[in-house]
Structure to design on (636 residues):
């Protein structure tokens, strides 16, 4: 395959790389004033990349996909679908940012910086590489490109103590996780003699040596950190709470999608011939994430921390699909991921919309009391997201949970499914608690009206998607997810 | 031996089952190397110390014994203030120094990778220049 052809297949990344470099220079010479222009251009570039990814996803000419750069990178429907989710999350994270940064501490101390959209674009390139990686080298480069941008983003309000702490914590623990991942990758290379996913899979067919098993375990541990699955979740609540809310919105969506997609690809394409070796690990981290995510959230008073535990909890449910280790499970995970992105974007933008009379962000759950009277629309939207996250039937969040449990039952993991369902009842408690505070508690009169149209539009779109109307999309989404999941199993 | 991955047959990549232990014998050279390196490096450290004691140049003073790391006393109250610009310079140095680590293997293999490799490296250098221009414009290189 010629280099020109390879470049064609990585078009989404090339668009983003070129525009990222250009925007960096515009931001450097234009200063703070250029932040608006840079944001608009970054969103345009992300839209262009989304259009290309959509073309790759839907055009029958690309149904087969193709390998680029001598088996380092693969274009397939799985990659294109997850890339679309990533780019959409990135676009939303840029759109909601200026309002937040211009109003930090009542607009006194900080302003929107042009570096913010640039860093999001660079992170999106890294995540695009991650979901298309079919080689340990590409995997690591994509992961680090995403992580390095994310460390800076977490500490973006560098004068704010919590944000600086979040950035430092994320950096130290992220560096540790990268080290663990690299150690596992070097073991895998040492014992199989290759870094290519398919070749590792072939080498595993003739048996799994102890060294390769350790490599597999270390790689999975590193990935579990990136998807914040228990027992590698400890950084998540602190980072989600401390990071600026638009950044938290980004962290909870795009990197989660990318890391989960990468874990799927690793488990199925690279370790697919030794399912027994990783299935028990995935079952354990799935169940542990569900239980710890649900139990940890109960005592939280800060809504961002609560949503952090909620994301740990949801990652557990998504991993149940991976534990099934079949095509139905992978397809269920993808559908769940689409719904999860909509629910999470919606709830974080809703949190972003909560401001008191001085313009400060409201993050305490107790301050939401009486929201149903002062801001009935927003309260209804938050209620929809909470019910959906809890997986209560008429809402779309239920469908994702239903699909992963169905896949688990089909794969004879009935006990796993039963435990997961039982644990989701614990989870329902804290989601319902937020709704109770909004609708039934004595009004605290903290939150004032917001005039942000962009927030309103995003919240409304996400709420519409997770509302029962979302079920109309099932044939479309299910079909795309099936095709993407089939692409993952194509090589086997 | 360099193993180039995907195109080699798998059988040759993985030792016969059960032979994992005997396979370790091929790492004997590196074990020997490590042992010799340990002995030699210990000699480099301790030999001058012994020689200096015996020849009478051993004359410690307070200033001689003070340790410095990156311009700071090594053991001090960790809450003291320091100039963060040292770190900025160090980070910039690492970024542009690592570039050389990529340039050397590129330069010696240029015959094989041809124009594609040349253009790729030029793109890489261009990206570094963009970063350099950004750092320069933002004043990361001005000490005052």
């Amino acid at each position: 395959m010629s280099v020109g052809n390879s470049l064609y297949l990585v078009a989404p990344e090339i668009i983003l790389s070129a525009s990222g470099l250009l925007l960096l220079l515009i931001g450097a010479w234009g200063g703070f004033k250029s932040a608006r222009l840079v944001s608009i251009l970054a969103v345009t570039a992300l839209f262009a990349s989304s259009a290309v990814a959509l073309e790759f996803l839907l055009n029958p000419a690309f149904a087969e996909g193709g390998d680029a750069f001598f088996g380092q990178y693969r274009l397939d429907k799985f990659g294109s679908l997850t890339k679309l989710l990533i780019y959409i999350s990135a676009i939303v994270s840029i759109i909601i940012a200026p309002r937040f940064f211009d109003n930090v501490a009542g607009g006194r101390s900080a302003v929107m910086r042009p570096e913010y959209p640039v860093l999001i674009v660079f992170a999106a390139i890294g995540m695009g590489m991650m979901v298309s990686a079919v080689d340990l080298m590409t995997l690591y480069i994509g992961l680090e490109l995403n992580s390095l941008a994310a460390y800076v983003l977490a500490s973006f309000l560098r004068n704010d103590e919590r944000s600086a702490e979040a950035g430092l914590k994320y950096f130290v623990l992220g560096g540790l996780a990268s080290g663990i991942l690299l150690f596992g990758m070097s073991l895998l290379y040492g014992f199989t003699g290759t870094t290519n996913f398919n070749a590792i899979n072939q080498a595993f067919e003739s048996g799994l040596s102890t060294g390769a098993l350790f490599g597999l375990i270390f790689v999975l541990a590193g990935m579990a950190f990136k998807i914040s699955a228990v027992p590698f979740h400890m950084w998540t609540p602190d980072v989600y709470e401390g990071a600026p809310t638009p950044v938290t919105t980004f962290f909870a969506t795009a990197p989660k999608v990318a890391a989960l997609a990468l874990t799927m690809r690793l488990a199925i394409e690279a370790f697919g011939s030794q399912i027994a070796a990783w299935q028990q690990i995935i079952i354990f981290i799935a169940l542990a994430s569900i239980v710890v995510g649900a139990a940890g959230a109960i005592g939280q008073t800060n809504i961002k921390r609560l949503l952090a535990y909620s994301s740990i909890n949801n990652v557990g449910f998504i991993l149940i699909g991976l534990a099934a280790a079949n095509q139905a499970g992978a397809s269920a995970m993808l559908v769940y991921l689409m719904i999860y992105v909509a629910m999470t974007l919606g709830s974080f933008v809703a949190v972003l919309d909560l401001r008191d009379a001085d313009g400060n962000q409201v993050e305490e759950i107790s301050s939401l009391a009486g929201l149903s009277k002062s801001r009935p629309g927003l309260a209804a939207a938050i209620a929809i997201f909470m019910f959906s996250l809890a997986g209560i039937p008429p809402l779309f969040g239920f469908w994702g949970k239903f699909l992963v449990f169905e896949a688990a039952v089909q794969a004879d993991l009935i006990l796993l499914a039963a435990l997961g369902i039982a644990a989701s009842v614990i989870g329902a408690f804290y989601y319902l608690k937020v709704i109770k505070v909004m609708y039934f508690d004595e009004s605290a009169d903290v939150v004032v009206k917001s005039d942000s149209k962009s927030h309103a539009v995003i919240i409304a779109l996400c709420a519409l998607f997770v509302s029962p109307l979302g079920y109309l999309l099932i044939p479309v989404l299910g079909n795309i997810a099936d095709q993407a999941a089939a692409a993952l199993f194509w090589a086997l | 031996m360099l193993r180039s991955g995907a195109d080699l047959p798998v059988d040759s990549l993985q030792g016969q089952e059960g032979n994992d232990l005997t396979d370790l014998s091929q790492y004997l050279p590196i074990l020997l190397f490590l042992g010799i390196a340990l002995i030699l490096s210990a000699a480099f450290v301790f030999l001058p110390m012994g020689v200096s004691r015996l020849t009478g140049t051993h004359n410690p003073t307070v200033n001689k014994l003070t340790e410095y790391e990156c311009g700071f006393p090594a053991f001090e109250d960790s809450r003291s203030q320091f100039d963060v610009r040292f770190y900025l310079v160090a980070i910039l140095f690492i970024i542009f120094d690592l570039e050389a680590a990529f340039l050397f293997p590129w330069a010696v293999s240029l015959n094989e990778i041809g124009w594609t490799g040349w253009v790729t490296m030029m793109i890489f250098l261009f990206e570094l220049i963009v970063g350099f221009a950004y750092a320069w414009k933002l004043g990361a290189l001005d000490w005052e």
In short: Chain A has one domain: 3-489.
